């Protein structure tokens, strides 16, 4: 099992839990889409998985181990694009990918080969090696972050809001890439608000409502007779507000 | 992983490989090399001379020198922004604590100032007949303690380090204990060496532990329950100005104090001006008081937009400066106690200085707040030139008047008069924000 979350709870204030007794499993060849409203705790959950913040109770196991500094080999199997995209503004895209690749222990030649492939796929034109990341738009920075998460070909890929700030064409390319990547046996965890793209990649759905997480598989959605969007919206408990005259 | 450090060094060099940067880098390198050699030779010559004239002991010289360089090292790269070297190592990267320490240490030593200090110590040891390798090493280790303290402060600014503040406080207490150990107990060189090494090892340990923590700052959704004072103090700019003010003040006081004690001076005729000026709250107000509403501009605009008079601003200013002033007073008392210069006149003078500068600082800050990003400067440009200049000149005038008054039999009456006039100006007069701030209103409203 690539990821197992058992009875995880987290609260930042007393008696106001953000997540309560969350359980989740992710296996090889699955793509789990994490959906929830703003502030529902999606990023908190991802941050707990990658050990940026600690859970109040419960256990997060990645490849059967805790995701800590001691477990370097476990960390090497995971690629992450967190909410705070940690690209280094002073570097060029090529330099940044080399930097991340070296951290993950990828050989120089392989870094070059994979960087070429990823840049060729995700960018319309190969980024200028003399340009620093600071000179790029939000979408370009996001693409750089995604490439960096993939440079070591991780067995588990975690992407927090990968479609946020990306144009439709690039989002479609990402969808295709993720589906292809999953078909090779890699596991993917994606959080997003964008149901259009989530529907295209999901093999499992986990909806965060208030502090609870409800996981469902595609079969369950099919059996409900509802569309993906309608099913998820209902799970989220979304009530459209009546429009009043704006004075 | 073995390739990562060479990669980061290569990038660091490449980052400097544009024309102006190459020039700057080369100048800094030359400066570090020449500065190290020249200062090493210079300090060696002065040390040998003073020792031969038996004016001062070797440990006293090294103590002052170490503290001065140490404080400079401490202040060096805190301002204006903490620097990130190479790149951030995020917590989910597969890097062990030991590897993290290795990276941090490599980059901590690749600095011009480090080259300068190492070279200067080497030359000092070689060129001086009085300084031994042991003394030079102790001095170097002490300077390194300041540097490590600096790293901890920077780390606590950029990263979420829960106990960063505690570590810094512990460090400062240790430094103060060292000073007391030296001055009050007339400690032997051996005990100072022991304490310095302990200090170095402790800071080293704390630094290594802190630098290996990789918890990234995440947004805190908790509502702040801090007092106004703590809220203002937690701002990076405020902390920066305070550190700068106190840093310089301590630097001057330690230097002057050591010389006075070493010479056994209790009669202040010869050294009259220095302790007065440097012990006064002038430095504190130059950095903090006169820039107060420049660094807290949101507070300034909110209050002045809401109110016709500036009562709220006075309250905010008072609430922040009063506790700072108390601490400032404690430092001065400590200085008087250590140097045996304790007298009612000095204390009265300090209070007078504080109160008059308190008013001048407020007036300057309200009339011409320094509303720009470079918070470390007093604005000598645009419309505030006259006001800033006036404020500094007024401060010196007050000092001169008070100094004259000490020789005068009406000293206390003169001081009381200054306090009364300042109080009346502060509490009784209603100012309007200056032209600079009005221009800022217009800009804000246009937005």
Kindly summarize this structure in a few lines.
Chain A is an alpha/beta fold and 247 residues long. Helices cover 37% and strands 24% of the residues of chain A.
Give a written overview of the molecule:
The complex is a heterodimer of chains A (247) and B (447). With 247 residues, chain A is of the alpha/beta class. Chain A has helices at 42-49, 72-76, 93-103, 108-122, 138-150, 168-183, 195-201, 218-224, 228-236, and strands at residues 3-13, 16-26, 31-36, 57-62, 78-81, 156-160, 187-191, 204-209, 212-217. Chain A starts with a strand and ends in an 11-residue tail after the last helix. Chain B has helices spanning 4-15, 19-52, 58-76, 97-109, 112-127, 133-158, 164-183, 189-212, 228-233, 236-263, 273-279, 282-287, 292-295, 297-306, 311-339, 344-367, 385-406, 411-428, 435-446. In chain B, 33% of the residues are buried. Residues 78-86, 157-166, 214-224 and 372-388 of chain B have low confidence and may be disordered. The A-B interface holds A 12-13, 47, 50-53, 67, 69-70, 72-73, 75-76, 78, 80, 82, 84, 86, 88, 90-91, 95, 98-100, 102-105, 108 and B 1, 3-4, 7-8, 11, 15, 86-97, 214-216, 218, 220-222.
The end-to-end distance of chain A, rounded to whole angstroms, is 55 Å
Shape of chain A: globular
Oligomer: heterodimer
Task: Please give the radius of gyration of chain A in angstroms.
Answer: 19 Å
Largest interface: A-B, 31 and 26 residues
Q: List the uncertain runs of chain B.
A: 78-86, 157-166, 214-224, 372-388
Uncertain segments of chain A are: none
Overall number of strands of chain B: 0
């Amino acid at each position: 099992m690539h990821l197992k979350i058992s009875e995880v709870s987290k609260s930042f204030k007393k008696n106001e839990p953000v997540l309560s007794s969350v359980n989740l499993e992710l296996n090889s060849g699955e793509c789990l889409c994490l959906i929830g409203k703003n502030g529902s705790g999606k990023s908190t959950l991802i941050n707990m998985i990658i050990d940026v913040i600690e859970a109040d109770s419960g256990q997060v196991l990645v490849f059967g181990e805790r995701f800590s500094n001691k477990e370097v080999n476990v960390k090497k199997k995971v690629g992450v694009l967190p909410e705070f995209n940690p690209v280094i503004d002073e570097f060029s895209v090529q330099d940044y990918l080399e930097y991340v690749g070296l951290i993950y222990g990828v050989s120089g030649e392989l870094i070059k080969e994979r960087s070429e492939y990823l840049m060729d796929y995700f960018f319309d034109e190969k980024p200028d090696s003399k340009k620093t990341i600071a000179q790029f738009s939000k979408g370009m920075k996001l693409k750089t972050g995604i490439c960096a998460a993939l440079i070591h070909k991780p067995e588990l890929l975690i992407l927090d809001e990968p479609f946020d700030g990306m144009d439709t064409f690039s989002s479609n390319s990402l969808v295709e890439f993720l589906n292809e990547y999953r078909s090779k046996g890699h596991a993917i965890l994606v959080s997003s608000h964008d149901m259009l793209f989530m529907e295209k990649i999901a093999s499992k759905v986990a909806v965060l409502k208030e502090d609870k997480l409800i996981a469902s598989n595609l079969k369950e959605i099919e059996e409900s007779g509802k569309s993906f969007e309608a099913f998820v919206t209902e799970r989220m408990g979304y009530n459209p507000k009546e429009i009043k005259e704006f004075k | 992983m073995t390739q990562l450090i060479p990669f980061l060094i290569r990038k660091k060099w490449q980052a400097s490989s544009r024309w102006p940067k190459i020039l700057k880098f080369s100048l800094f390198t030359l400066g570090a090399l020449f500065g190290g050699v020249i200062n090493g030779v210079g300090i060696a010559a002065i040390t040998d001379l003073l020792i031969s004239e038996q004016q001062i002991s070797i440990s006293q010289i090294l103590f002052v020198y170490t503290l001065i360089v140490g404080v400079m090292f401490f202040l060096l790269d805190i301002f204006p922004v903490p620097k990130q070297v190479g790149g951030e190592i995020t917590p989910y990267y597969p890097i062990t604590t030991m590897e993290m320490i290795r990276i941090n240490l490599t980059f901590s030593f690749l600095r011009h100032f480090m080259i300068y200090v190492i070279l200067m110590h080497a030359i000092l040891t070689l060129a001086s007949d009085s300084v031994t390798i042991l003394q030079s090493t102790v001095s170097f280790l002490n300077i390194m303690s300041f540097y490590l303290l600096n790293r901890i402060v920077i780390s606590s600014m950029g990263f979420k380090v829960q106990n960063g503040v505690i570590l810094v406080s512990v460090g400062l207490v240790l430094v103060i204990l060292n000073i007391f150990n030296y001055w009050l107990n007339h400690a032997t060189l051996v005990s100072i060496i022991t304490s310095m090494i302990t200090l170095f090892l402790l800071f080293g340990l704390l630094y290594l532990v802190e630098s290996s923590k990789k918890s990234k700052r995440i947004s805190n959704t908790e509502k702040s329950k801090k007092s106004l004072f703590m809220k203002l103090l937690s701002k990076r700019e405020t902390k920066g100005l305070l550190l700068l003010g106190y840093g310089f003040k301590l630097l001057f006081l330690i230097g002057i104090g050591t010389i006075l004690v070493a010479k056994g001076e209790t009669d202040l005729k010869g050294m009259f001006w220095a302790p007065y000026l440097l012990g006064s709250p002038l430095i504190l107000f130059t950095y903090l008081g006169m820039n107060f509403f420049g660094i807290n501009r949101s507070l300034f605009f909110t209050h002045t937009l809401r109110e016709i008079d500036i009562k709220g601003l006075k309250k905010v200013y008072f609430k922040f400066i009063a506790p700072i002033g108390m601490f400032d007073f404690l430092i001065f008392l400590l200085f008087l106690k250590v140097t045996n210069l304790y007298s009612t006149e000095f204390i009265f003078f300090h209070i007078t200085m504080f109160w008059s500068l308190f008013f001048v600082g407020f007036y300057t800050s309200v009339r011409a707040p320094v509303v720009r990003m470079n918070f470390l400067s007093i604005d000598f440009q645009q419309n505030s030139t006259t006001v800033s200049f006036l404020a500094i000149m007024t401060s010196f005038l007050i000092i001169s008047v008070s100094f004259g008054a000490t020789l005068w039999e009406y000293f206390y009456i003169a001081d009381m008069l200054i306090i009364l006039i300042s109080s009346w100006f502060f509490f009784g007069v209603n100012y309007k924000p200056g032209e600079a701030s009005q221009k800022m209103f217009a800009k804000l409203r246009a937005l």
